[in-house]
Amino acid sequence: MLRDASLAExxxxxxxxxxxxxxxxxxxxxxxxxxxxxxxxxxxxxTALAQAPGPRRKLFVEIKTDPADYRESADxxxxxDAVLRDLRAxxxxxxxxxxxxxxxxxxxxxxxxPDMATAHLTVPDAMKPKVRLLANGDxxxxxxxxxxxxxxxxxxxxxxxxxxxxxPHISDITPSGWPRPRPCLAVGVWGVATAEEIAAMTDxxxxxxxxxxxx
Length: 215
Fold this sequence. Notes:
It comes from Phenylobacterium glaciei. One of its GO terms (molecular function) is phosphoric diester hydrolase activity. InterPro entries: PLC-like_Pdiesterase_TIM-brl. This is Glycerophosphodiester phosphodiesterase. This protein has 215 residues and is α/β, with parallel strands linked by helices. It has two domains: 1-39, no CATH class; 41-211, Phosphatidylinositol (PI) phosphodiesterase (TIM Barrel, Alpha-Beta Barrel). 28% of the residues lie in helices and 13% in strands. It contains seven helices and six strands. Strands 1-2-3-4-5-6 form a six-stranded parallel beta sheet, with helices on one face. The radius of gyration is 18 Å and the shape is globular. The relative contact order is 0.10. The mean pLDDT is 91.
């Protein structure tokens, strides 16, 4: 498992192109490949950003954990603590946003760095039937703020959890179904893949976009 790999083992992976014949390669057939692209550590990335010309870049950091089974991922507390340590050492917390599907990470962050920007990620409606629920019927991802206890509304659940930004998949955002959560929550859409989608989301007035690749 990747969580058990050493840093040296992780740095041996060449990340410059999808594995030939993989579903990811088929999904992005026109994506150019690059040889010799290896995984940086967060401090290495922050050093490169600090040395880049122009204004300081805004960094989105997704904490990837699996609350359905933490044996499959890093410990959320330890991972968040490590990220905060590196961001603080580089003086990058003010220019960073922490995003997560595992809302317990965002609760922990609110206690440790309440001024940091955050976004509550949500899965597309089409994927929700695949989520393994807890014995009480709640999703393990929402840290006790299941939308079913808030009138079925993810927006109200995020507000109850202390969130500031809702980050849904683009498939859940359409002009006719736009929920217009402002002024309570900002909106940052993920899964955006084309120039047309960027333009459409910009026209709707979303505050942030997570793009799947160069558009």
